[in-house]
Every structure is written in structure tokens, then in C-alpha cells.
């Protein structure tokens, strides 16, 4: 099942993607408060209901929002692709490197991204994002991770490298500027993905290929990451995990190739669709 949220910011409606750019409205499954509809049992109920309903939502002219409401937190994994580690000249971390993004950085997959004032080092990162569907704390092993995953989507973990690496303190400084996490277009349930550790990820800047890799290059796989993160913080329905980016980011070129006003970034992952943003000052 591919879930999509459409409508103006803050007033999106939940739908199941059908054929020919039409969708099936399932907003009646969404309640106020935590997104309990992300639990696997509720997702099955949504799928069953959608099978009995017509696809009446025309998405051809609709704004597409993030496929999940504003997350309570976005947990990011740094240095998790061997190729990316090599291009930036760092050592492979002995354990996953974690940092946080605020939930309010999340925007829709086609929304405009704002380059911070005076920024000279704004960068793109295509990432596989894991969406949590059930509360998870202190999972006993990676084998328990699959049961708490609602699905997968595409994340652009936008970064300002000067703020991240040259201004002291933690990476969070370069990761939390407004609009710095486009997410979507779809939330794809795990049954739609044959092998999450064999997905191709690509990114393009103004039509030129920048990143082209697969999740086989991950140092730490999806189930390991969910288990590992649960040892340090409680994961709740709607939380998002950005699982790292492959080689080809702007910082990795010599000289670096950062983004500027008017640049267009497009990202795709096998089975998860495509997103695109224009970066503007």
C-alpha cells in the first residue's frame, strides 16, 4: 500500500494511492492526537477499507504533503554508507552516529526549500527514511524491529555544512534550519518492498546525477538501526529515522558543489517514488 497526504499545509488528508494519479480517501481513519493509524493493524484496516472504496481524489493539481504528520522527532544516522565515508575522509564509526532533527523541519516532497541567509554551503542528501508505527523502547534484538516499522519513504536530509562542521558544537546547527527535511511523496508499507537492503537511491541537481548508489552500501542496516536507536530513546508512532546518505553529496566534490538560489534537486528511491524541490533564498 502507498499512502499519501494531500492538501494545504496543516490541512492534509490521508489517501491510498490508486492508479492514474487518483487516490482513495481514508481520512476517517485519522484521529486527533498521536498517529495511531500507523500501527500495522490499523494499516491493514486502511488497506481493507480502501479495497472497497472508489478512487475519487484527483491528485493531478493537488499539493502533496509529508506522508506522515509532523514527526515528534527525526533521528538521523551519520556516516552510514561506505562510499560517503570514503569521500569525506572519515573513519567508519564503530557504532551508529546519531543526531536529531526537529519535527518542524519536515515539509512536503515538492515544497520549496529555503537556503538560510548568507549560507554558502547548503547541501542535499538522498536518504531512505523509516517511519515508526508502534512504540519501541529497549528492543531485545534487531529481529524485533520489523514489527514496529510502518513503512518507508524518501528523505532529503538538507544540511548547511558550515553550520554543521565549522561553527563548533554538534551537527544539529547545520541540520535544523526551516524546510530542511522534505519527506515523501509516499509512505510505502513493508510488504511492498522486496528487500529494503537492495534499493537504488539517486539524486540530481539541475538534471545532473550526483548520487547513485544502493542501500547495500549501508554500514548498519535498517533493522539494526531501529533496534540500536531504541536503546537510547523511545520511538513513537510517526517518528522518522533518516538512515544515512551515499556518496555524491556536494561536500564530497573537489571543489565542493553546494546549492544556490534557483537550483532544483530531485531524489528517487526504488519503489518509493520521486521528490523534487527548488532551493530559494
Task: Describe this structure in a few short sentences.
With 281 residues, this protein is mainly beta. It is built from 4 helices and 19 strands. The chain starts with a strand and ends with a strand.
Give your account of this protein's structure.
With 281 residues, the chain is mostly beta strands. It has 2 domains: 2-58, no CATH class; 74-280, Alpha-Beta Complex (Fumarylacetoacetate hydrolase, domain 2), CATH 3.90.850.10. Helix content is 11%, strand content 30%. It has 4 helices and 19 strands. The protein has helices spanning 40-50, 82-87, 161-165, 222-230; strands at residues 2-6, 13-17, 22-25, 57-58, 74-78, 97-101, 106-107, 113-114, 122-123, 126-132, 149-156, 159-160, 181-182, 187-188, 200-205, 208-214, 240-242, 264-269, 273-280. The strands form 5 sheets. A 5-stranded antiparallel beta sheet has the order 4-3-2-1-14, with helices on one face. Strands 6-5-17-10-11 form a 5-stranded mixed beta sheet, covered by helices on one side. Strands 8-19-18-15-16 form a 5-stranded mixed beta sheet, with no helix packed on it. The protein is globular. The chain starts with a strand and ends with a strand. The mean pLDDT is 97.
Number of helices in the DSSP assignment? 4
Shape designation: globular
Q: Strand tally, please?
A: 19
Strand order of the largest sheet: 4-3-2-1-14
**What is the helix/strand order?**
EEEHEEHEEEEEEEHEEEEHEEE
Proportion of residues in helical segments: 10-25%
Low-confidence spans: pLDDT under 50, at least 5 residues? none
Highest-level CATH class of the largest domain: Alpha Beta
- Let me know the largest β-sheet: 5 strands, antiparallel
Q: Calculate the terminal CA-CA distance, rounded to whole Å.
A: 37 Å
Rg, please?
A: 18 Å
What is the CATH fold-level name of the largest domain? Fumarylacetoacetate hydrolase, domain 2
Named CATH architecture of the largest domain: Alpha-Beta Complex
Assign the CATH superfamily of the largest domain.
Fumarylacetoacetase-like, C-terminal domain
Beta-strand percentage range: 25-35%
How many distinct folded domains?
2
Quaternary organization: single chain
| Structural class by sheet pairing and helices | mainly beta
- Overall mean pLDDT stands at 97
Amino acid at each position: 500500500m502507498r499512502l499519501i497526504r494531500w492538501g494545504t499545509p496543516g490541512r492534509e488528508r490521508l489517501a491510498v494511492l490508486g492508479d492514474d494519479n487518483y487516490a482513495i480517501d481514508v481520512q476517517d481513519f485519522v484521529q486527533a492526537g498521536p498517529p495511531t493509524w500507523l500501527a500495522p493493524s490499523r494499516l491493514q484496516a486502511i488497506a481493507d477499507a480502501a479495497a472497497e472504496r472508489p478512487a475519487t481524489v484527483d491528485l493531478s493539481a493537488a499539493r502533496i504533503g509529508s506522508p506522515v504528520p509532523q514527526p515528534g522527532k527525526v533521528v538521523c544516522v551519520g556516516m552510514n554508507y561506505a562510499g560517503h565515508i570514503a569521500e569525506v575522509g572519515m573513519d567508519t564509526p564503530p557504532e551508529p552516529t546519531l543526531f536529531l532533527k526537529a519535527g518542524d523541519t519536515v515539509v512536503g516532497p515538492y515544497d520549496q526549500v529555503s537556503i538560510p541567509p548568507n549560507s554558502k554551503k547548503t547541501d542535499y542528501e538522498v536518504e531512505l527514511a523509516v517511519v515508526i508505527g508502534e512504540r519501541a523502547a529497549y528492543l531485545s534484538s534487531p529481529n524485533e524491529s520489523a514489527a514496529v516499522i510502518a513503512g518507508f519513504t524518501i528523505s532529503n536530509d538538507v544540511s548547511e555544512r558550515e553550520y554543521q562542521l565549522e561553527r563548533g558544537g554538534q551537527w544539529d546547527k547545520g541540520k535544523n534550519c526551516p524546510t530542511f527535511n522534505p519527506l515523501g511523496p509516499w509512505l510505502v508499507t513493508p510488504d511492498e518492498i522486496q528487500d529494503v537492503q537492495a534499493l537504488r537511491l539517486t539524486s540530481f541537481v539541475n538534471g545532473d546525477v550526483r548520487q547513485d548508489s544502493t542501500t547495500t552500501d549501508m554500514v548498519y542496516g535498517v533493522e539494526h538501526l531501529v533496534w540500536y536507536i531504541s536503546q537510547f530513546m523511545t520511538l513513537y508512532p510517526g517518528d522518522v529515522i533518516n538512515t544515512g546518505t551515499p556518496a555524491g553529496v556536494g561536500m564530497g566534490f573537489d571543489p565542493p558543489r553546494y546549492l544556490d538560489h534557483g537550483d532544483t534537486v530531485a531524489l528517487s528511491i526504488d519503489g518509493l517514488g520521486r521528490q523534487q524541490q527548488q532551493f530559494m533564498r
